[in-house]
Write a structure and sequence with these properties.
Number of strands: 4
Largest sheet: 4 strands, antiparallel
Order of helices and strands: HHHHHHHHHEHEEHE
Strand content: 5-15%
Shape: elongated
Low-confidence stretches: 1-6
Number of helices: 11
Distance between the termini: 14 Å
Structural class: alpha+beta
Strand order of the largest sheet: 2-3-1-4
């Protein structure tokens, strides 16, 4: 790919990372922290330190990340960590600004509601960072280091780290309700991340087996304005050749497609599966 096209992707990536980090910083400082709730990740560790030792969380966040980055640079290399380094420095600055200008809770006397709103903002922000192949550092680096030498799923490693950090809030507050609130916030944050990364671009892949494949394919083209592909197949039990129609469509179009197929051939055999992303004409653009 020519370098000028790559440059377009680079500046868009860093713009998305920056906007995502702003959302994360405001959500953490303005909504989650005032409720005394501990999140997962290194931010959760930094919150625990601030709650117990009154050390501003941005200092802990930056110091621990610097140590992790030095270790990771030797193992993972500079290329892997460029956007992580950018994310760590920018988020540290944003957390410092938010600590200076957001001096009180934005939502008073509703710590759980405040935490949920903060989780939605933080999750959306992290989702934007991840879609740009960025990172906020912290436990991301730890799991990446472990994953290089051990066959541990990245998501499972993150979940385990976050669960341990949230449970440690009991050592500070001596209150099980804080753990429950932290787990709720983590759940909302995880869901928000997933929605930003995958939720808005879920499509379906439909396989249609029918003797009336020509009529169905033409109807899908003309009535639903969707392209389709006809593949050659063979029923292994009957040893008879058959045609398979493959269609990629938006989830919202699936019901109309099923009704259209049923009106043509009630005996048609249909398989539907969810696909995480479809890129190209009529779907999402490659980012």
């Amino acid at each position: 790919m020519p370098k000028r096209y790559l440059k377009d992707f680079y500046w868009k990536d860093y713009l998305n990372i920056t906007i995502g980090l702003i959302l994360y910083a405001v959500g953490l400082i303005g909504f989650i922290k005032p409720g005394g709730i501990v999140t997962g990740g290194l931010a959760g560790v930094a919150l625990l330190v601030e709650y117990s030792a009154k050390i501003p969380l941005q200092y802990t966040y930056f110091s621990v990340n610097c140590i992790l980055l030095i270790i990771a640079l030797k193992v993972l290399g500079v290329k892997f960590l460029v956007k992580t380094i950018y994310g760590v420095f920018v988020l540290t600055g944003l957390l410092t600004l938010c600590q200076t200008y957001i001096t009180g809770p934005i939502i008073e006397e509703e710590p759980l509601l405040s935490g949920v709103i903060g989780a939605m903002m933080c999750g959306s922000g992290i989702g934007m960072v991840f879609t740009a192949n960025g990172s906020t550092g912290g436990t991301d680096i730890i799991v990446a280091l472990i994953n290089k030498y051990k066959n541990i799923a990245f998501g499972r490693g993150m979940l385990l780290c976050d669960f341990i950090i949230i449970c440690c809030s009991y050592l500070v507050f001596q209150d099980y309700q804080k753990i429950i609130a932290g787990l709720i916030v983590m759940g909302v944050m995880t869901y928000s991340i997933d929605m930003v990364i995958n939720g808005f671009r879920q499509s379906v892949q439909v396989l249609i087996f029918s003797e009336k494949y020509e009529i169905i394919a033409n109807a899908i083209n003309k009535e639903l304005h969707r392209g389709c592909t006809v593949l050659d197949g063979m029923g292994w039990y009957s040893k008879k050749p058959t045609k398979v129609i493959v269609v990629l469509a938006k989830r919202s179009e699936a019901i109309d497609m099923f009704r259209l197929i049923k009106s043509i051939d009630e005996k048609a055999f249909i398989s539907q599966s969810t696909v995480r992303g479809v890129y190209g004409e009529g779907f999402d653009q490659i980012r």
